[in-house]
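G., the chain you wanted modeled:
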Amino acid sequence: MLIAMAQLFGKKGAKMPVLLVEQNHEASDYPDVVEFLQPVKIEGTLTNEDEIFVLEAKCATEIALECSRCLAPVKQKICFELKERFAHTGIEDEETQTFSGDQIDLTVSVRRGIIEELPMRVLCHEDCKGLCPACGNNLNTGDCGCDTTERDPRFAGLLGLFDENEEV
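Predicted structure as tokens:
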């Protein structure tokens, strides 16, 4: 995601509108993202503030994630704001990113913004039943009939005392 901004060099206070649409985003670079359903859209303004270039933009996209319980696909809109500072190489500042030439690469900033907006946990619906721990069937589509009684492994030796088929 490159911004060609040569027209702002040497023009303190000059502004330039920014509108970028990036179609080909690789989902494997993002945790839990299955695919990008819409391109990443960046819309904002790039301003020359005494050879420090400030980008203020709103970004949006739509992605598909997996439900945390049943692994069904879930659509999620991602919206975030970018406020980044850029300068030519040589300026030492923690808040300012450096660039060379007459293009600014926004890939790292956009990636960071998307990752920060990813939800910790996604559910297809609030009362999702998840997958059967025994056979793996989706319990939202119906009961599979598996015995899912949880037994404490510390008492496994005592289970033999209550076996009906065993003579005492």
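The chain has a mean pLDDT of 83.

Shout if anything looks off.
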